Amino acid sequence: MKQVNGVDIEKLSETMNAIRGNPDIAKFNFRATNKWLGGGHNRTTINEFDGACSMHNRAISFVIDEDEPPVLLGQDQGANPVEYALTALAGCLTTSLVYHASAMGIKIDEVESTLEGNLDIRGFLGLSEGIRNGYNGIQVAFKIKSDAPKEQLQELVDIAKKRSPVFDIVSNPTPISVRLDN
Amino acid sequence: MKQVNGVDIEKLSETMNAIRGNPDIAKFNFRATNKWLGGGHNRTTINEFDGACSMHNRAISFVIDEDEPPVLLGQDQGANPVEYALTALAGCLTTSLVYHASAMGIKIDEVESTLEGNLDIRGFLGLSEGIRNGYNGIQVAFKIKSDAPKEQLQELVDIAKKRSPVFDIVSNPTPISVRLDN
């Protein structure tokens, strides 16, 4: 097993070759279930998914609590949903950066990022129709430790933006259907 | 304190009146920091935020691990970033539904939702330029227990879509700037 940055690049290369032979291997279906626990508190459970032409079950489900802080009428029993949106974006940009660095043979020592987003809750509250409900913008700042030259690290940041699934989900329209199954 | 569905509707009403008097109270800035831990594993920390004209610190930070499953070259040390995107959406639609139900005086007994999203990793891998990196679509299904008539529950689902910040972030373009601070 040959690893770069903790990523098995032989398996990565094999996966890419397998997908070139059979594009169905690239198809994934991810899932979540959520249960309301009262007020702003709810709990998401993540486990199985479909991908690479088979179903995958984790040994233990991931259980994720979400709540609002007191100023937003919650009790801080978890980060809030818009903070989880930043979490998803941070993790995805980082993984995209590291995996592509690994594929390119660039050794990375450390990656840190800080994210922030501005949101005006008049949208959520329905107090002003001209104001959007979500973030009006998200700023991400990376710090990367590596022996690679700065131009190459900037290139990796650009590749992360170009390839990250969550960057795409947030920055471009993603169709969502919502139905009531009562 | 008058609560409906665990939401303090007196405080909600006071907040809305305060915002009508001073729209700056509606402005929030949420933050996250992320640190890469090797391979597909990274950790997001959430704590302080600005909102309602002051800075807020939680007593304990929320620490959120993200990883990939083995089929995506990780070790399952946390849900993956696109699963956190579903988590954010699930929590936000649920909270939007419950808060607006509370404001309307509609009592809710249970809310459950299931989410799924399809994603073709040829986008992430750069194997096919015609395929998007993120979800090509997300399906959300709600089940709600309440004495309210089904038409009113459908109306609540529609309000959740109309008001949810994360629904907006995912379904509409959200500008993201990414910089390298080396």
Automatic annotation (TrEMBL), chains A, B:
Signal peptide stretch? none
Q: What Pfam families does this protein's entry cite? A: OsmC
- Top-rank taxon of the source lineage equals Archaea
Protein name (database record): OsmC family protein
Q: Which organism is it from?
A: Candidatus Nitrosotenuis uzonensis
